[in-house]
Amino acid sequence: MAEAHQAVAFQFTVTPDGIDLRMSHEALKQIYLSGVHSWKKKFIRFKNGIITGVYPASPSSWLIVVVGVMSTMYAKIDPSLGIIAKINRTLDTTGCMSNQTQNIVSGILFGTGLWVALIVTMRYSLKMLLSYHGWMFAEHGKLSAGTRVWMALVKLFSGRKPMLYSFQTSLPRLPVPAVKDTVNRYLESVRPLMDDGEFRRMEGLAKDFAFNLGPRLQWYLKLKSWWATNYVSDWWEEYVYLRGRGPIMVNSNYFAMDFLYLSPTTLQAARAGNVIHAILLYRKKLDRQEIKPILLMGSTVPLCSAQWERMFNTSRIPGEESDTLQHVKDSKHIVVYHKGRYFKVWLYHDGRLLKPREIEQQMQRILDDDSEPQTGEKKLAALTAGDRVPWARARQAYFSHGKNKQSLDAVEKAAFFVTLDDIEQGYRKEDPVRSLDAYAKSLIHGRCYDRWFDKTFTLIVFKNGRMGLNAEHSWADAPIVGHLWENVMATEYLELGYSEDGHCKGDTNQNIPIPTKLQWEIPEECQEVIERSLSTAIALADDVDFHSFFFDAFGKGLIKKAKTSPDGFVQLALQLAHYRDMGKFSLTYEASMTRLFREGRTETVRSCTVESCNFVRTMEDPTESNENKLKLFQLAAAKHQHLYRLAMTGAGIDRHLFCLYVVSKYLAVDSPFLKEVLSEPWRLSTSQTPQQHIDLKKNPEMLSCGGGFGPVADDGYGVSYIILDEDSIHFHVSSKISCSDTDSHRFGKNIQKAMVDIMGLFNLSKNCTK
Prior knowledge:
By secondary structure, the protein is α+β, with helices and mostly antiparallel strands. It folds into five domains: about 1-45, no CATH class; about 60-160, no CATH class; about 175-245 and about 655-680, Fumarase C, Chain B, domain 1, CATH 1.10.275; about 250-290 and about 305-545, Chloramphenicol Acetyltransferase (2-Layer Sandwich), CATH 3.30.559.70; about 555-650 and about 680-765, Chloramphenicol acetyltransferase-like domain (Chloramphenicol Acetyltransferase, 2-Layer Sandwich), CATH 3.30.559.
């Protein structure tokens, strides 16, 4: 608010009698309150920095240690083995302290040093304990005595009341696997996809690499792993995401959906008001590190929280060769898009966060504004949807000065971006298939010019009050956005609520200044670039086929009765469905996380294995007995779980080979093996969205649809799924319409049939023919 009032805080008029100076007390008040708010945030960040910096100890423990040292000194006991006396003699040479003062200062210095040594010891001990991953490979539900002792020690060294970033310095580094181990695992993964001749050729390339070039590249990678916090993440962010020159819309960005059946209000402005406020409450907790770190193994093992750092106030900035991520420490506004206009909305008034009803009021003011878009403004965001190089050049040429720069800064430095869409979307009971498919396509690309695809996320609120999220991928992975989204939906529905007439609770405030329209001067040359980018984006959007469906024949409840991992069950069903759909096996990507390590992101689980192929072939053989099919299913499921655990514990295949490839490029050496490995298409790309926050047992009506993404290969499928509750799973399937071999709806039917067919192998009570 302060920035909005600064222009009118001081007014003066030149008269024959001199200068008449007038001050706006209201404006000065807003400036003062804004300053107080900023200093409060700085203090909280400083305080949290200290608390996190000394973790697993606490600032108060310093006083305990120092008092303990001083007490022993006055009891004529030297706890320092002579160190305090040496400090005393050193201080004595200054000649500016009395003996008593020297004793006190010596005790405090030694106590502080002892306290720091204890912190370092505890932190290093915790890091060593967290480097152990044997618990991951133990049989589910059974803990050995050794694992129980290990868990007790982890909890002992973990301190009390950890904040979001408390464990960061205690997390181990991602280990670099041995080249031979990675190569062997790779060969095992491609064996079912190649005939004997192809495999022998690949085996020759692989072994030559493992014995010759591989060790040389590995040496550099080992050196990086000792020096850098994580040997993968920075290269992964740069080369996989930021250096991509094609459109990020569909190809990289992903989406999250609203509740499936629940519609808290049909008022667009009200829904936006509550949800924006809930997002800002989450940001407030994030700034204060009040979000608890995610812990596994009965709240014992922490996951890395680094990806939360750039959730807000961040935008992807286009470049000629590589994009960058621009992050500002704080942002007091959002930018809202509606019917071709951009509005800047301040989030604070009177030094406080706007209340939900006040945000609703601001959204309604935007909806009621009937002004026309400025020339070139309506389709401006198409620049973020098309190829990156034209956008980078246009940004430099037309948005680097004047009002265009000011307006673009407002967008890029906003806390996040909001679209008030003028169409209705969401699940419709009378047409569930087409309504969910259209809803998914609207979230992933919209009209190609009504989402700012470079922002970390765009909140989309539709005319009928349904909503969704479009997220940029480079800054973080889907579970991080999922954590935000579930918290926001829970806060909105369970805490904020709506009045009987559908409005946000509370009162409006007419003293809040109206949203400001951003001003643009977009020349004809830039408009031509916008149109070309839009043509590229529309061609891409029109080629995407989405099928989003709710599977309620059974869920994780029945799968667990079958003594199988729900994720492993779904992955094998996808293998069976894909084989039935395409008539062959394909290289399969399943995203796993490596956040057990500091700054870890993802690793690939290659779900198409020898064991899964054997199972699928057996399922398609009518002469095989159910007993044999079940046996092969269990072998394939166990193999999948083992591969998933290897990926989570740093022993995956693809990130290691990717980094070796990057090193080879830096050294300007050619590797036929690495070149071939990294050019292999992922024709089946899959990802599970975890259910993290919403308790469906307590609130079954809060069933969500999860989210999805576009196909990775032009002739393949993208499949996202969320295992919701005991009785349901939601799937999102994507493919390219231009590929005659793929059909998302056909594949969706194959998935449902495969799920039911596999469950039919088990003699369980629930009817699985639904």
